Amino acid sequence: MYSGSIVAIVTPMLESGEVDFPAWDALLDWHVAEGTDGIVVAGTTGESPTVTIDEVVELTRRAAARLKGRIPLIAGSGTNDTARSIARTRRFAEAGADAVLAVTPYYSKPTQEGLFRHFTAMAEESSVPVILYNVPSRTGVDLLPETAERLAAHPRIVALKEATGSLPRLKELRERCGEDLQLLSGDDPTAAEALLAGASGVISVTANAAPRAMRELCAAAATGVAGLTRELDARLQVLHRALFVESNPIPVKWAVEQLGLIRGGIRLPLTRLTADGQNLVREAMRAAGVECAL
Prior knowledge:
This protein is of the alpha/beta class and 294 residues long. The protein is 47% helix and 13% strand. Helix 3 (82-95) packs parallel to helix 4 (112-125), helix 4 (112-125) runs parallel beside helix 6 (145-151) and helix 8 packs antiparallel against helix 10 (226-242). The N and C termini lie far apart (37 Å).
């Protein structure tokens, strides 16, 4: 159900920081035309800490109307407060999300039992499928494979975005969860190997700037052609790395701006990409065959 190149899409903003809804509509159309397999609204790359719940509802509502069910629409509803996460899940589902993405509760640092109860409570109250999201480098808490195995038994918990970049972790998850839990890479630099090892897709930052190339990579991996998959990935590796030269989504928002798709708005505490970072990202885009409009 959730496979291929799923973009963790940026949130277009005016220079003032207001959400640019006309640019949002155009950006969605562009991703559909480029072959993107799914959209994640208000993930980390969409500046989830600073976009308001009302803004996410409107982004989701407009995306649902625009996409018309052609590709899955996933909204980031997870927070470090279980009750608030449940409330967000309800509102985003009502706005038209096909599924929600639930990050591990950051800062609070719950135990594995706390994680199990948190995600179970979200799934029990959700009317749409729940995709777990494990990114310990940002949250300070790691959803361990044994806990993922327990959660996979819930009928509404359908997938896990695993962003550790660990292939041994992916293998263990596959062995423990089998077909009960789809695995999605959340780490672009290791996504190709994850796909070849059994992940069904990638929730990608790079797909914001190179959606067609990421779609082609995923399609090659789905056919099991390892040589072509690695060849396509080799062209993108410099871009994968450059898009994290500063904290995500700073570099990728600048990259999408250079494609002429969005303006330069970003919300504090994030700041515009530095001149040195711009040079690195521009060279990486060129090396990956991504043509800038600006």
